Each structure stands twice: as C-alpha cells, then as structure tokens.
Amino acid sequence: MGLTIHYDLKHSGDDAAALVAKLRQRALDLPFTEVGEIVDLGGAACDFDQRDRDDPNRWLLIQAGQYLDDPLNDGTSYSLAPTRVIAFSTWPGEGCEEANFGLCQYPRYLHVDGRKIPTKLPGWSWHSFCKTQYASNPECGGVENFLRCHLLVVAMLDYAKTLGMLERVSDEGGYWEKRSLEALVKDIGEWNQFIAAFAGQLKDALSGGPGQLVSEITKFPNFEHLEAVGADAQRQGN
What is the H or E stretch that residue 200 is in? Predict the structure, then answer.
C-alpha cells in the first residue's frame, strides 16, 4: 500500500534490445541514485522461482512475470514466466522502490492439465510499477526527495513515449495527467496521513496479540502526527 506509478510498455519490432539500451542511456543521463546493467535472459533463467531470495535480479524477474486467468475457472490464475527478458533496474533514491524497465516475450500457450491456454501476449511487453511514497520520509529527504524520485520515473516514461513503446500509465499521484507539482505535493501529504491512520488502527488491533505491524510509514519520525491528522480527517469524513 502506498502511492505508486504503474506502467506498461509494448513493442512489435525486432529491435527490442536497441530500445532498452536507449532507455538505459536516458536513465544514465538523469540523476538516478543507481542504474543497473542490462540483463538479457532466456528460458529457465527468466523464472524468478529459479533464483535465490538474495539474487539481485529476483525483483526484476518477479515484475517480468505475468498472471494468466483460466477461462474455464473463474478466479483461477496461473503464473506465467517470460521466455526472454531484456531489462534493467534503476533506483531513484532513498525510500523509493526500484523502477524496472525493459521488454519481455512470453510463450504463446500455457499448458495446464492437458489444455493449451492462449496467453494473448504477442511481441514484446513490460508491465511494472514503482512505489514512490516512502521517499517522502523526512529522514530520506522529505517531500523534496519524493518529488525527485517520482519525477525521475515520469521522465523515463516520457522518453519511452517518444520511442513509441509506452502503452499505459496509471499514476496514483495524478502527476502524469495533471503535471501539477502543487497537486502532487498535496496528494503525497494526504496519502501519508491516510496510511498512517490505517497503520495506527492496525497497531491498536494487534496490540497484545501475536503479530507486530511492520510498515514503512511507522518509520517516519513524524508518524504520530500523521496518524493523528489522518484519523481526524477520517472522523470528519464519516
């Protein structure tokens, strides 16, 4: 849970590797904290289940995977690993998730219980997301750091659009559509208050119980203030 940018890339040509290289060069030209090397993998090497938990490429490969709904069984879906991955990771900054970019190919069919389920994933595609909210932790640099991280991801998607490979963006901060820093700053403040209030409720529910809440928002030095403001906003909304 947290303010996130979701994005899909797509390509139908035979120059996927060149496009991913252009994307990575754009990342190197921007002030990312880290930009990884391009990984080009095929076959079983694309399956994150074949990787150790501490494998540096495991999260990238998790995001490269897809879920395929079973047309004969509502509510049933199957994990679908790519057959080819050309991608790289970036780290916008402290408190932010990695933002992964690339293109994948998938099998035409998934074989389940003697059936062939069409995947309907032709060509090259990429479906990913980056949670930027917790870059707003004051100990990571606060709102200024959040804006830097969020806008870096947007800048990459803007460039992907110029390359003709951007299919869809869903920005929970609204910046992709509005391009308003003022609105984005307002949104991140409200998100932090809402999640702090929610986390506070969970902490109260778990107090004395076997579980202990672990949440990035509780690490904010101003968590109690955010929780109080968020709880008050919820009461007024009710």
Answer: helix 181-206
Which residues have C-beta within 8 Å of that of residue 224, sequence separation ≥ 6?
none
**Gap between the Cα atoms of 219 and 200, Å rounded:** 12
Judged against a pLDDT cut of 90, whether residue 88 lies above it is answered with yes
Residue 94 neighbours by CB under 8 Å, 6+ apart: 33, 135, 137, 140, 141, 145
Nearest to 164 by CA among 13, 4, 40: 13
Backbone phi, psi, residue 106, to 5°: -130, 155
**Mean residue pLDDT across the chain:** 91
- The amino acid that residue 175 corresponds to is Y
Of the chain, the end-to-end C-alpha distance in Å amounts to 22
In the DSSP assignment, the letter for residue 32 is -
Would you call 122 helix, strand, or coil by DSSP?
coil
What is the distance between the alpha carbons of residues 154 and 101, in angstroms, rounded to a whole number? 12
112 vs 175: CA distance, rounded Å:
41
Tell me the pLDDT tens digit for each residue of 102-146: 999 999 999 888 899 999 999 999 999 999 999 999 999 999 999
Amino acid at 81: A
Write down the residue that tokens 């702090």 correspond to: 196
d(CA 159, CA 88): 15
Residue ranges per structural domain of the chain: 4-177, 185-237
